[in-house]
C-alpha cells in the first residue's frame, strides 16, 4: 500500500529538502534515546520518501549549498528558589542579566574553578557581553523564591565557542537611613545594614550566576541549575529553573519560506507515519502508533528548530494520525492521548480560524468514518480476527471522548447526538447485512425444498449474529456508549425476518413434500430460538412481529407428526430385525432392540419438547395424536418381538433351556418398554399441559383421551407380560406338582426335611436361573404365579389323607419352608404378597390338622369364648354370676345369682330352668365334678342365689381355653332336658387370680352378666376334624357330647 500519492512529486521534494536541512543543521547533544549518527537519519528519510540514491545525493548537495540558518537559543527564565537575602529585611529584590558570549572555551583568564570541576566565572555579564546583546528580566521585590517565566531569543554563530551566562543580582535602590533602620528585625539584619553603609549608593548585590557551554546542551533542556558564586563566599546560593531550545531563524529551504512551520511539520508527520504503518509486519490493525527512534529524532529536531508550540505539535500529530485512520485502520488508542492534549491546550486559545476549521473538519470526518465502521462492525471487526473486540472498544472510546471535548462542542455545534448517529448507523448496517445474507443464501433452484433450506440457513445466520451481539459486542457498546446494541439489532432483524419468511411461506401450499416439511420444522425451531431471544431485550414497545410465528406452520404439523411416527416405526422394525434376543449383560437383562426403542422414544419426546407449541388447545390436540403414535409403536413392538422369537426358534431347533432364555429376554424387553411408556407423562410434562388447558378442555376429556390411551396401552403390555410369564410358569408348575406329590406319598415316619429336599433343590435351581435371566419385576410376577399354583397343589394334598397327624405336620413344614424360599430374605416376594387368602386358609387348616386332639378342644373353647365376648344380644336370655378365686384356699367360688329373659320351652308358656356348671376342657379338670343348681319351676326369670366352690390350682385357670361352661336347661320330667342356652366364662379373667387382686369382702366381687348362646356353627370345623380321628376316644367323646348338646336345642 503506497500512501505517498497524497503529495505531488514537487511537494515531496520540497518536504524532503526541509528534512535534510533539519538534519544537516542539527544542534545540541543528542538525547539518550535518539539517533546521533546523521548518516542513519539520512538513510531513514530516504526510505520514508522513497528516494533513490541519486535523487538523494542531488537534493542533499543542493541543501548543503543553501545558506545556513541563524542559530538561536530560546532561553526561558522560569523561577529561582532559596536565593540569598541581601536586604536588611532578610529578602532580596532579584533580577537577572543574561546573554551569550562567543569565545574559546580555554581562553578565560578571569575564571576560577567551579564545584563540578569546571572553571568558575568571576566576570559578570555586563562586562563580558555587549549591552545590545544583554537581556534583563523584571525585578521581583522582596522574595527568596522569585518567579519570572520570561523568554528571550539569543542569537549565536558558533555553537562550539558560544557560552550562555546568567547573572542574578539584588536590586539596591537609594533609601533613607531612617527607613532602613525601621526594617531591622534581628542582629543579622544589623550586620547587613552596616555592610551596606560601606557600599556605594545604588550598588547591586551579586546573588549568583549560571554559565553553560551551548554545545553541552540538548536540543531541548528544562532543569534546575545551581547558582554559582564568584568566590568561595556563600557557596550555597540557591537554584534557578531554566528552559532552553536550540532554534533556527530564517531557514533557507523553499518549504520554510513559502509555508507555515506548522503546515510543514504536519506534512512531515503524515509522511513518516504513512511509511511506518506499512512497515508494521503484524498488519495495520495491530499498529499502536508508536514510531521508531529515527522518526522520533527527526520530528523532535524539526519541531524544535522551527520553534513549534506544543499545541501546534499536538495538532499536527492529531491531524496526521486522524486523517491516516480514515484511510488505514490502526489501533485507535494512540489517538486518545492526543485528544487529551488538545483538550488541555484548547483552554489557551492559540489557534487561528484556519486551524480551528482544520480541527473541526478532523472531528467531523473521524465521527462520520467511525460511525461508518460501526455500521459495518460485523465485517470490520469479525469475531474470528484477533483483537477485534479491543479494536471495537478503542473506536467506541475514541468517538465518546471526541464528543466530550470542549473543543468539539464549540467547533461542531450542528453535529447530531452521538448515540443517535450510532443508533441510526447500526440500524442501517443491520438491514444491509440482512439483505447481503439474503442475497448470498438465495437458492439457485427455486423449488419448495431449496427455498425451505435457504430460509433455515438465513435464520441460523441471524440467530448466530444475535448471539454474538448479546454475548460479545453488546457489553462494549453498553459500557462505553450506554447503547443497547442487542436491542437495536434484534428489533430490526426480527421484523426483517418476519416479513421475509411470511412472504416465502405464503407461496408454499399444503401439498408439500416430506423434505420440505422437514426443512420447515428446522425453520420453526430456528424461529423459535429467535423469538426466545426477546427475553434479552431491555425494553420493547408494542408486540413483536414474531409473536405469532407458530401460526405460519399450522399446515405443516400433520406432516411433522407423520414424519416422527414413520421414523420411530422404521427404527423399531429395524431394531427388532437385527435383535438376537440375547441379554446385553448381567446388569441389563434386556436385548439391543429396547435400547434402540428407548432412543427412538427419547427422540420423539425431544421432538415434542422442541415443538413447544404456544397455543394450549392446539398443543393438546397435537399431544393426543403424538401419544397415539407412541402407543401404536409400543404395541407394534410387542408383536414384532414375539414374532422375532418364534422366527429364531424355527431357524434353530434349540434345547428347551435356550427357548426359555429367549422367553425371558422377550418378557424383559416388554417390561422395559412398559417402564418407558409409564415415564411419558412426566417426560412430556402432562401436568403443565393440563394446567394450561384447564380453562378450555374439560378434565373428563383429558382423562378419556390422554390418560385412557396410555392406561390401555399399559394394560396391553401387562397382558403381554403376563402371557409370557404364564408360559414360563407353566413349564415349572408340572415340576412343582410332581415334587409335592412325591413328598406327600413319603412315609410319615420319614424326617420332613428329607422329604422336602428334592423340591427345594428343584426350586433353588429354577429360581437361580430365572432370577439371572429376568428383571426383578418379571421375576416377581413369575414367583407370584408359581406361589399361587403351589398353594393350590398343597391344598389338594391336604385333602388326600384324613386324620394322620404326622402327615399334616409334614405339609405344614413344607408350607413354611416354601414361604421362606419364595421370600428369599426379601429378594423374592414380599410378605404381604405371600400371605394371600389361600395361604392364610391353608396355613390355618394345616395348623388345625396337625394339632393334637386336646389342642383342638382348647381351640374350640377359645372360639366359643371369643363368640361370648362378641355377643351383643340376649336373644336366648342371660345368666348373672359372681366369680372369684382365693389363692390361700386354691378355691374358685362361683355364685349363680339369676337368669333372665329365658325362652319358654314348655307347653304352658314357661320353663323349669336350672343351671349346670362345668369346668372345661375336661382333660384339664378331670377330677372336678359338674355342679347343678336347683330347678325353679315355671319361671322365665329364676333367682338362684347359690354358691359353688371348685378346688383347683391357679395355674389351671391360666391354661389355654380354660373356662366355666354355664348351661341353662329346662327340666323335663319324662324326656331329655331341653337346652335354654349356654355361656362361657374364661377363667383367666376371674377376679383374684392375681394375688394382688384377691378380694377380702365377697360383696366387692362384681357381677358378670353373660348372654346365653346356642352351639351354632362356631367351632364346627374343629368338631369335624375331631370326628375324623376315629381311633381317638377322647376326641370322639367330645364330639358326641357337643353333638348331643346341639340336639337338645329346640331353636337352633
Automatic annotation (TrEMBL):
It comes from the Eukaryota. InterPro entries: C2_dom, C2_domain_sf, MUN_dom, Munc13_1, Munc13_dom-2, UNC-13_domain. One of its GO terms (biological process) is exocytosis. Residues 52-204, 875-1000 form the C2 domain. PROSITE patterns: C2, MHD1, MHD2. Keywords: Cytoplasm, Endosome, Exocytosis. Its main location: cytoplasm. It is found in: Cytoplasm; Late endosome; Recycling endosome. One of its GO terms (cellular component) is exocytic vesicle. Pfam families: C2, MUN. The keyword Cytoplasm applies. Residues 753-860 form the MHD2 domain. Residues 521-641 form the MHD1 domain. SUPFAM superfamilies: C2 domain (Calcium/lipid-binding domain, CaLB). Gene3D superfamilies: 1.10.357.50, C2 domain. Belongs to the unc-13 family. This is Protein unc-13 homolog D isoform X2. It comes from Eublepharis macularius (Leopard gecko).
Amino acid at each position: 500500500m503506497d500512501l505517498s500519492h497524497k503529495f505531488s512529486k514537487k511537494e515531496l521534494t520540497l518536504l524532503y529538502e526541509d528534512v535534510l536541512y533539519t538534519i544537516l543543521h542539527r544542534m545540541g547533544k543528542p538525547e539518550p534515546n535518539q539517533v546521533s549518527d546523521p548518516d542513519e537519519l539520512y538513510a531513514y528519510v530516504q526510505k520514508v520518501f522513497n528516494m533513490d540514491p541519486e535523487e538523494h545525493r542531488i537534493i542533499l548537495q543542493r541543501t548543503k549549498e543553501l545558506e545556513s540558518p541563524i542559530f538561536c537559543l530560546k532561553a526561558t527564565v522560569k523561577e529561582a528558589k532559596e536565593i540569598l537575602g541581601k536586604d536588611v529585611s532578610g529578602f532580596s529584590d532579584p533580577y537577572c542579566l543574561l546573554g551569550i558570549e562567543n569565545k574559546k572555551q580555554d581562553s578565560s583568564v578571569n575564571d576560577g574553578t567551579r564545584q563540578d570541576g569546571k572553571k568558575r566565572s568571576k566576570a559578570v555579564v555586563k562586562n563580558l557581553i555587549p549591552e545590545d546583546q544583554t537581556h534583563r528580566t523584571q525585578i521581583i521585590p522582596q522574595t527568596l523564591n522569585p518567579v519570572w517565566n520570561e523568554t528571550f531569543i539569543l542569537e549565536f554563530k558558533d555553537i562550539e565557542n558560544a557560552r550562555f551566562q546568567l547573572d542574578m543580582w539584588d536590586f539596591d535602590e537609594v533609601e533613607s537611613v531612617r527607613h532602613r533602620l525601621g526594617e531591622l528585625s534581628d542582629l543579622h539584619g544589623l550586620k547587613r545594614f552596616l555592610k551596606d553603609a560601606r557600599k556605594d549608593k545604588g550598588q547591586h548585590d551579586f546573588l549568583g550566576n549560571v554559565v553553560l557551554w551551548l554545545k553541552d546542551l540538548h536540543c531541548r533542556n528544562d532543569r534546575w541549575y545551581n547558582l554559582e558564586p564568584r568566590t568561595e563566599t556563600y557557596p550555597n546560593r540557591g537554584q534557578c529553573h531554566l528552559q532552553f531550545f536550540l532554534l533556527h531563524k530564517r531557514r533557507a529551504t523553499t518549504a520554510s519560506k513559502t509555508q507555515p512551520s506548522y503546515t510543514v511539520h504536519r506534512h512531515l508527520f503524515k509522511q513518516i507515519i504513512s511509511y511506518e504503518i506499512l512497515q508494521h509486519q503484524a498488519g495495520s490493525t495491530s499498529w499502536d502508533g508508536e514510531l521508531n527512534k529515527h522518526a522520533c529524532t527527526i520530528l523532535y529536531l524539526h519541531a524544535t528548530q522551527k520553534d513549534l508550540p506544543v499545541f501546534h505539535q499536538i495538532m499536527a500529530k492529531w491531524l496526521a494520525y486522524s486523517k491516516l485512520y480514515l484511510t488505514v485502520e490502526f489501533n485507535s488508542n494512540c489517538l486518545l492521548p492526543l485528544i487529551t492534549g488538545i483538550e488541555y491546550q484548547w483552554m489557551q486559545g492559540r489557534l487561528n480560524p484556519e486551524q480551528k476549521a482544520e480541527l473541526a473538519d478532523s472531528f467531523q470526518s473521524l465521527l462520520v468514518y467511525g460511525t461508518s465502521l460501526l455500521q459495518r462492525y460485523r465485517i470490520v471487526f469479525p469475531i474470528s480476527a484477533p483483537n477485534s473486540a479491543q479494536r471495537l472498544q478503542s473506536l467506541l472510546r475514541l468517538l465518546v471522548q471526541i464528543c466530550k471535548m470542549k473543543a468539539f462542542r464549540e467547533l461542531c455545534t450542528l453535529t447530531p447526538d452521538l448515540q443517535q448517529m450510532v443508533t441510526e448507523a447500526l440500524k442501517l448496517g443491520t438491514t444491509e447485512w440482512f439483505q447481503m445474507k439474503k442475497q448470498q443464501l438465495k437458492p439457485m433452484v427455486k423449488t419448495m425444498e431449496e427455498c425451505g433450506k435457504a430460509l433455515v440457513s438465513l435464520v441460523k445466520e441471524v440467530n448466530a449474529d444475535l448471539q454474538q451481539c448479546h454475548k460479545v459486542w453488546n457489553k462494549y457498546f453498553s459500557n462505553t456508549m450506554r447503547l443497547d446494541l442487542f436491542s437495536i439489532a434484534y428489533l430490526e432483524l426480527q421484523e426483517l425476518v418476519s416479513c421475509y419468511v411470511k412472504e416465502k411461506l405464503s407461496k408454499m401450499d399444503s401439498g408439500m413434500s416430506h423434505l420440505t416439511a422437514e426443512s420447515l420444522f428446522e425453520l420453526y425451531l430456528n424461529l423459535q430460538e429467535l423469538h426466545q431471544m426477546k427475553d434479552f431485550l431491555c425494553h420493547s414497545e408494542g408486540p413483536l412481529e414474531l409473536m405469532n410465528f407458530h401460526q405460519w406452520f399450522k399446515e405443516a404439523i400433520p406432516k411433522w407428526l407423520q414424519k416422527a411416527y414413520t421414523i420411530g416405526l422404521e427404527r423399531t422394525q429395524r431394531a427388532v430385525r437385527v435383535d438376537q434376543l440375547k441379554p446385553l449383560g448381567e446388569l441389563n437383562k434386556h436385548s439391543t432392540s429396547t435400547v434402540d426403542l428407548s432412543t427412538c422414544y427419547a427422540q420423539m419426546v425431544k421432538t415434542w419438547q422442541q415443538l413447544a407449541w404456544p397455543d394450549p388447545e392446539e398443543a393438546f390436540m397435537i399431544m393426543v395424536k403424538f401419544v397415539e403414535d407412541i402407543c401404536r409403536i409400543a404395541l407394534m413392538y410387542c408383536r414384532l418381538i414375539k414374532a422375532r422369537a418364534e422366527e429364531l426358534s424355527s431357524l434353530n431347533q434349540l434345547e428347551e433351556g435356550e427357548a426359555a432364555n429367549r422367553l425371558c429376554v422377550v418378557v424383559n424387553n416388554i417390561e422395559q418398554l412398559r417402564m418407558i411408556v409409564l415415564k411419558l407423562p412426566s417426560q412430556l410434562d402432562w401436568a403443565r399441559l393440563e394446567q394450561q388447558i384447564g380453562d378450555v378442555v374439560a378434565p373428563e376429556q383429558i382423562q378419556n383421551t390422554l390418560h385412557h390411551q396410555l392406561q390401555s396401552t399399559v394394560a396391553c403390555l401387562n397382558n403381554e407380560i403376563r402371557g409370557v410369564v404364564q408360559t414360563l410358569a407353566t413349564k415349572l408348575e408340572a415340576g412343582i406338582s410332581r415334587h409335592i406329590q412325591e413328598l406327600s406319598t413319603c412315609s410319615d415316619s420319614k424326617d420332613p426335611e428329607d422329604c422336602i429336599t428334592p423340591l427345594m433343590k428343584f426350586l433353588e435351581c429354577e429360581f437361580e436361573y430365572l432370577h439371572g435371566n429376568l428383571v426383578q419385576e418379571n421375576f416377581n410376577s413369575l414367583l407370584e404365579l408359581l406361589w399361587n399354583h403351589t398353594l393350590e397343589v398343597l391344598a389338594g394334598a391336604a385333602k388326600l389323607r384324613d386324620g394322620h397327624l404326622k402327615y399334616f405336620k409334614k405339609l405344614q413344614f413344607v408350607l413354611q419352608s416354601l414361604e421362606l424360599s419364595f421370600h428369599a430374605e426379601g429378594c423374592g416376594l414380599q410378605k404381604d404378597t405371600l400371605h394371600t387368602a389361600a395361604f392364610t386358609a391353608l396355613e390355618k387348616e394345616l395348623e388345625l390338622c396337625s394339632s393334637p386332639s386336646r389342642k383342638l378342644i382348647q381351640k374350640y373353647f377359645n372360639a366359643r369364648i371369643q363368640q361370648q365376648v362378641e355377643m351383643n344380644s340376649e336373644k336366648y336370655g342371660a345368666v348373672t354370676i359372681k366369680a372369684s378365686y382365693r389363692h390361700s384356699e386354691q378355691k374358685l367360688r362361683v355364685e349363680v345369682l339369676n337368669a333372665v329373659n329365658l325362652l319358654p320351652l314348655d307347653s304352658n308358656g314357661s320353663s323349669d330352668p336350672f343351671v349346670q356348671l362345668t369346668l372345661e376342657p375336661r382333660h384339664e379338670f378331670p377330677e372336678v365334678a359338674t355342679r347343678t343348681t336347683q330347678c325353679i319351676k315355671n319361671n322365665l326369670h329364676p333367682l338362684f342365689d347359690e354358691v359353688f366352690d371348685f378346688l383347683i390350682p391357679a395355674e389351671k385357670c391360666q391354661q389355654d381355653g380354660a373356662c366355666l361352661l354355664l348351661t341353662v336347661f329346662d327340666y323335663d320330667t319324662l324326656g331329655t332336658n331341653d337346652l335354654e342356652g349356654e355361656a362361657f366364662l374364661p377363667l383367666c379373667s376371674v377376679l383374684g387370680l392375681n394375688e394382688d387382686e384377691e378380694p377380702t369382702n365377697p360383696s366387692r366381687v362384681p357381677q358378670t352378666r353373660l348372654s346365653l348362646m346356642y352351639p351354632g356353627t362356631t367351632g364346627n370345623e374343629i368338631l369335624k376334624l375331631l370326628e375324623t380321628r376315629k381311633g381317638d376316644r377322647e376326641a370322639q367323646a367330645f364330639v358326641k357330647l357337643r353333638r348331643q348338646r346341639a340336639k337338645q336345642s329346640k331353636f337352633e
